């Protein structure tokens, strides 16, 4: 039985479409909105409209930005010899949180997935190749997700990139730090053994 | 390390304020918004603004509505002799989903909670008493949550209502249907024994 107050029902329905938000959570979110002050509610609606209209892809790497170049491509202190290729803007955030990587990124906005009708032509690949042709890039690190589709996309890209004479590497597979070996799956364990390193 | 693109950072921050939404989820929600079509994003912002401006409390019961009376107070086929007192609009939804209750509601919009600075004067109590004075109400059912504060609020209200000559009842405590006795807490078990019924 749905709510009979139309504007509220519409609001709950809008929130239900968000990823990872179920019926109950959408309801709680809607009640939260109704309890906001007038200016906070106004702010929320405006922030959504503004973010959607102002944010687009960086001309160079495809990451999200509200200027021509994203903050990372624009930064003077990044190592421009390395490009880390990721699936989504969220992956850039994850790397930046770790603070370990000082190179540039390239965001594909997806993976090759014939089942979902996503081919190489639907991804941000062309501009990656032109970056490799023009720039002084010394290494490309593939950091697609360790899924079948992520792997296939990395393979596909590495075959395109190698003829250009740029070395391509891949993130290491292995046991995640802090995990319990007992619960590691077989494939991960095999990869961890294959990739073992000398003390 | 936060995101450096200001409109996106603001959007994520807005979503983080929602109840039950953590950092990761707020990020996913923000990316969902950026991937909407122009008209869908516009719709979302407008639905939020509209719901917030149009929805207010029902003049009679305090539940949420976009008209003078809520759909339940306005309905011709409800049993007007019974009023079920609940904490929040979400509780009305829960009762309506069960479809078992045909009476009216009264929404307190909170519970008495000295720690949080909420006294009886902050709740929707006055209009409840005036409903009992004027209407042909034969029973009030207390359906506040089974917490210390919910209980105390129900006790407080029943003391106010009894002098008006209206019987006050409380929801039954006991084992939830489908639950496993093994995992029931002691207080619930004690209440279930105290409230046992004859076959």
Question: Please, could you describe this protein's structure?
Answer:
The structure is a homodimer of 199-residue chains. In chain A, strand 3, helix 5 (89-98) and strand 4 (103-107) form a beta-alpha-beta unit. Chain A is built from eight helices and six strands; from the N terminus they run αααββαβαβαβαβα. In chain A, the strands form two sheets. Chain A has a four-stranded parallel β-sheet with strand order 4-3-5-6. Helices cover 44% and strands 12% of the residues of chain A. By secondary structure, chain A is an alpha/beta fold. Chain A folds into two domains: 6-54, RecR Domain 1 (Helicase, Ruva Protein, domain 3), CATH 1.10.8.420; 76-170, Dna Topoisomerase Vi A Subunit, Chain: A, domain 2. The model of chain A has no long low-confidence stretch (mean pLDDT 90). The interface between A and B is large, with 53 and 53 residues.
**Helix content class of chain A:** 40-55%
Oligomer: homodimer
Low-confidence stretches of chain A: none
Instruction: Tell me the radius of gyration of chain A.
Output: 21 Å
Number of domains of chain A: 2
The major beta sheet of chain A can be summarized as:
4 strands, parallel
Mean pLDDT of chain A: 90
Overall form of chain A: globular
CATH fold node name of the largest domain in chain A: Dna Topoisomerase Vi A Subunit, Chain: A, domain 2
């Amino acid at each position: 039985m749905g709510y009979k107050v139309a504007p509220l029902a519409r609001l709950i329905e809008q929130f239900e479409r968000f990823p990872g938000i179920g019926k109950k959570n959408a309801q709680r979110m809607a009640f939260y909105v109704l309890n906001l002050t007038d200016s906070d509610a106004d702010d929320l609606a405006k922030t959504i409209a503004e973010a959607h209209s102002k944010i687009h892809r960086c001309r160079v790497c495809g990451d999200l930005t509200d200027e021509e170049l994203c903050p990372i491509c624009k930064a003077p202190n990044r190592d421009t010899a390395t490009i880390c290729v990721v699936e989504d803007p969220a992956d850039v955030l994850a790397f930046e949180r770790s603070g370990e990587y000082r190179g540039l990124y390239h965001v594909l906005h997806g993976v090759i997935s014939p089942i979902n009708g996503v081919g190489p032509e639907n991804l941000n690949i062309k501009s990656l190749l032109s970056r490799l042709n023009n720039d002084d890039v010394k290494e490309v690190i593939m950091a697609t997700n360790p899924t079948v589709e992520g792997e296939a996309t990395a393979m596909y890209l590495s075959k395109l990139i190698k003829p250009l004479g740029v070395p391509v590497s891949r993130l290491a597979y292995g046991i995640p730090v802090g995990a319990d070996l007992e619960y590691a799956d077989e494939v991960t364990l095999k990869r961890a053994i294959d990739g073992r390193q000398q003390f």
